[in-house]
Structure formats: C-alpha cells, structure tokens
Amino acid sequence: MANIRSIKRRIKSVQNISQITKAMEMVAASKMKKAQDIALMGKPYADRIYELTKEFAGKVDISLHPLLSSGNPEGKILLIVISSNKGLCGSLNTNLFRKIYNFIGTNRNFDCVSIGRKAASFLIKSKNNLIADFSDKQKFIDSVPAVTKIIVEGFINSKYKGVYIGYSNFINVLKQEPSIKMILPISSLGEEVHVSGSIAKKDIIIEPNFDEVLEFLLPHYLENQLRSAIHEGEASEHSARMIAMKNATDAALDFMESLTLIYNKARQEKITYEIADIVTARAAFE
C-alpha cells in the first residue's frame, strides 16, 4: 500500500513538472518569435556594414581615423562575451564557453567584458580579467553605448590590439552556433567581397568618395555589430530554451507513462492478493 502511494505521489510530481516545463516552452516560443524576427531582419544589414567597412578601409588613408589603425602590437585583446542571464536553455552557453575557452587558451593577455550573468560567472571562474559586467541591465541592448565607449577608448589609446565579440550566432530555431567575431582592427577583405550571397570583384563606385562615406559609416559600425550580436544571442537563447523545455516536457510525459504502468501493475497485484485472502478466509470457514 505504501509503495502504491509513493508511486502515485511521484506521478503527481512528474505531472506538475511537465505542466511547468510546458508553460515555459510556450513563453519561450512567444519570446523567440519576436527575437527571431529582429535578429533575421537586422542580420543582412549588419553583415553588409561589416563587409563594406572592411572594404572601404583598404581604399583610404588609415591616418584619417584612429579606428582604422592596426592597433598596438604589444597591447591586449578585448573580448566581449554575450550570454544569457538565465539557464534552462540546453547546451547553448556551454558550447559558447567551450569555444571561448579554446580561443583564449593559456593566454592571459586578455581583458573581458560580459553581457549576461552566465558569461560573468564563467569568466570569473576561469580566472580571466573581467573589467566590466553589464548583466544587470534590464535590456542588454541598453549597454551598447557603454561597451562601445570601452572599445573606442581602449583601442584609440593603444591599450588593445584587437577587439572580438563572442556570442551565439542564430542560424534557425534548431541550430545556434557559437561564434567569435573580430570587429577591430578593421582589415581589408582581400581581392573579393561577398555581396548578397554571391562573390563580386572589388570594382565598386562610391559617391562622393570612400573617405566621406567611411567617415559617416565608422561611428555606427561598432554599435551596429554589438547590437546585431546581442539580438542574435537573444534569439538563440529563446530558441534553445524552447527546445530544451519541449524535450523536458516529452521526457516527463514518458516517465509519467512508465510510472503509470508500474502503478497499475502494483495495484493489480494488490487486488490479486486481496482476492486470494478472501478466498482463503472463506475456505477456512467452510
């Protein structure tokens, strides 16, 4: 009897868990749709800005703007890591942190900025030099101006020789890739540039000229790359959480089905024993 009651309590607990994970799945799905639309709409623009900035930088005098310099060869590397504030999103953060760990290796010539509590926790535990944390911002996008200021001041003052962003690149609902993207120093793409998914030669005509266009483009370049990475990270987080909660719900339902089968067997066994006791008692009286 005690065993049957215990199984029944477990079934009830698993059922409650499945209801919670199902609700979290639905919440993540609703957030994912909005975040996915923002990430996918902004991605082509961010990619094109990235390509054009690097392309134009190879056609102008780098002394025109300090951000076009090659950086201080003796300086550090600045790494901005964008993660989630919360867990329950599968292996999303783990995959990103593994890639960052392999990227940094044993090199301690790094300064790190975290956007997301999981990133801050990882960087502290791995004993990296965390100089700023923007995890407490209600919206990560609000931290873009402050992070941009750290990047610009550090690079112009020759503190850094390169700046990288580590984030989860949103491919689709089922696939998110950990990525590390260099945003400074700005270098040329080489002999070819990608245009709208194809490859085109470098014969580009710009009016009025490359210098004026690049001077207008550079102030928006860094903020645009940060915003795009944050939007893709948020879309990846909600997608990964939706899939993780769906898997958790399915696992809970499967476990509940197994427990129900065990419960029915135990109950059937108990009924059989009770019938046997009744038949034995009646036979004894006769």
UniProtKB/TrEMBL annotation:
Functional summary from the UniProt entry: Produces ATP from ADP in the presence of a proton gradient across the membrane. The gamma chain is believed to be important in regulating ATPase activity and the flow of protons through the CF(0) complex.
Subcellular location: Cell membrane; Membrane
Gene Ontology CC terms, in alphabetical order: plasma membrane; proton-transporting ATP synthase complex
Keyword tags: ATP synthesis, Cell membrane, CF(1), Hydrogen ion transport, Ion transport, Membrane, Transport
GO molecular function, one term: ATP binding
GO BP annotations listed: proton motive force-driven plasma membrane ATP synthesis
Annotated protein name in UniProt: ATP synthase gamma chain
CDD domains, sorted: F1-ATPase_gamma
Main location: membrane
UniProt source species: Candidatus Gottesmanbacteria bacterium CG1_02_37_22
